[in-house]
Amino acid sequence: MAVGFLTEAVERVRKDLELRPLNEGTLLLRTRAVPPPRDFRSALAGPGVGIIAEVKRASPSAGPIAQADPGEQAGRYERGGAVAISVLTEPRYFDGSLWDLRSARRRTSLPILRKDFILHPAQVIEARAEGADAVLLIAPALSASEIEELGAVAEDLGMAALVEVHTEQDLDKAVLAEAQIVGVNSRDLESLHVDLESALGLARTISQDRTVVLESGITTRRDVVRAGEAGADAVLVGETLMRSADPEVTLRRLAGALEVAREDGG
Questions:
Q1: 249, 259, 261: which is closest to 82 by C-alpha?
Q2: DSSP structure string for 146-162
Q3: CA–CA separation, 15 vs 12, rounded Å?
Q4: So which residues are the catalytic ones?
Q5: Exposure of 70 by Cβ count < 10 A (0-12 exposed, 13-18 middle, 19+ buried)?
Q6: Which pTM was predicted?
Q7: Euclidean distance between the first and final Cα of the chain, in Å?
Q8: Interior angle at CA 154, CA 150 and CA 159, nearest 5
Q9: Which domain holds residue 240?
Q10: Which H helix or E strand runs over 71?
Q11: pLDDT tens-digit profile of 219-246?
């Protein structure tokens, strides 16, 4: 049986961490030099469905996407009305780096989510040291106890953890770990297949006391509306915005702001 993408990627990251372990003490010292974290969860709790706009150079499913400057892109996203920024820092499959995160941090006041294969507490500390306000924890790559441990490290640092799920079993793990922000990914990270309908269905089953984010497969205003109808507080959009010639306009269109402007005669 062929190994899926997520299994292979996680295996490689675990080996990398074993060969080149991060120095937690040094990273903790660095966290003292950065400004206090911004409230990621509160940013998603505003009126309507918020948009987390993603800086993503490439992906295993799409290949190269765009080479926009991360700082400039983050600035465009903020001007376009995004409620938070997501930055891919994984280098092997997404062509990302911590430099991308630092660059975005310098150009936006919005909360920033670090997206990577986070498997060890030191990576959470590293994210805070680089200015991130939240980290992505991928439920199918972690046990419930690992999610709980990594989430606790994030909480100690004043950060949020977005726990990503794809199946009911993943959701059970997230609930067991008492995740407060749950991201439902339309993409199966093993096969890389996208099924928006299944993701919407899973989102509807999540308790309203949790913050829900719908990820992947969001390309139109109608997708955003449907996500809201399924109970999502926010959607995460990457490739659509990265490929856009004018991400500010695309963001406003996704958020429905352009429709409101036309209704008002704007």
A1: 249
A2: HHHHHHHHHHHTT-EEE
A3: 5
A4: 54, 56, 115, 164, 185, 215-216
A5: buried
A6: 0.94
A7: 57
A8: 150
A9: 5-263
A10: helix 70-80
A11: 999 999 999 999 999 999 999 999 999 9
